């Protein structure tokens, strides 16, 4: 019987909750999340916990921040000029911006002031313990082409984001 191991294409049904039991993402009503095990396409704590599971097997998994999206880094909050944002900017919105060296980043609006906007460059799930309920829906060996090019699942954007957060745009 095949089990989840490196270089296997895994189809995963899942529900993701936070500590307050709020469901923040789920594959319910959608295609399962599909990825190649061992290539770092999902968060490390979840990937490790899936190892050895078989098709049809279900499991509850707790992923601590250091094995998920990391701890929230206070150095990743920045005050930016209000003028560079649209007039209707609101707390909670996400924007794609470029750093001084040209890197593309997603920032999340924390506060809107008269002359400035406080943004957060941390992932929205940074510092959160994540509670997954998972079921292995499918499993097969990855092809050589998939291993060479990577596998872009239904729930991922072109930059490989599969965090499930709204507006992540390539987290």
List keywords for this structure.
disordered C terminus, 5-stranded antiparallel beta sheet, mainly beta, 2 helices
How would you describe the overall organization of this protein?
The protein is mainly β. It folds into two domains: 85 residues, Chitinase A, domain 3, CATH 3.10.50; 47 residues, Thrombin, subunit H. 8% of the residues lie in helices and 35% in strands. The chain contains two helices and nine strands; from the N terminus they run E-E-E-H-E-E-E-E-E-E-H. Strands 1, 2, 3, 4 and 9 form a five-stranded antiparallel β-sheet that branches. Strands 5-8-7-6 form a four-stranded antiparallel β-sheet, with no helix packed on it. A hairpin with a 5-residue loop joins strand 1 and strand 2. The longest helix is centred in the N-terminal third of the chain and has 7 residues. The chain is elongated and about 60 Å long.
CATH architecture of the largest domain: Roll
- Element-level helix/strand string: EEEHEEEEEEH
| The CATH C-level class name of the largest domain | Alpha Beta
Q: Evaluate the radius of gyration.
A: 18 Å
Distance between the termini: 35 Å
The SS-based structural class is: mainly beta
CATH domain topology of the largest domain: Chitinase A, domain 3
By DSSP (H or I, 4+ residues per run), the number of helices equals 2
In percent, how helical is the residue content? Answer: under 10%
Number of strands: 9
Q: What is the molecular shape?
A: elongated
């Amino acid at each position: 019987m095949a089990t989840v191991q490196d270089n296997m294409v895994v189809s995963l049904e899942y529900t993701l909750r936070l500590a307050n039991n709020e469901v923040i993402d789920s594959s319910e009503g959608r295609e399962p999340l599909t990825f190649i095990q061992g290539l770092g396409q999902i968060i490390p704590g979840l990937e490790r916990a899936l190892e050895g599971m078989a098709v049809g097997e279900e499991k509850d998994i707790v992923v601590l921040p250091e094995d998920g999206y990391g701890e929230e880094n206070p150095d990743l909050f920045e005050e930016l000029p209000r003028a560079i944002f649209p007039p209707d900017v609101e707390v909670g919105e996400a924007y794609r911006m470029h750093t001084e060296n040209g890197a593309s980043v997603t920032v999340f609006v924390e506060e809107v002031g008269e002359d400035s906007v406080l943004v957060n460059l941390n992932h929205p799930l940074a510092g959160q313990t994540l509670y997954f309920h998972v079921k292995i829906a499918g499993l097969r060996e990855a092809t050589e082409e998939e291993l060479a090019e990577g596998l872009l699942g239904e729930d991922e954007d072109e930059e490989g984001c599969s965090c499930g957060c709204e507006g992540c745009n390539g987290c």
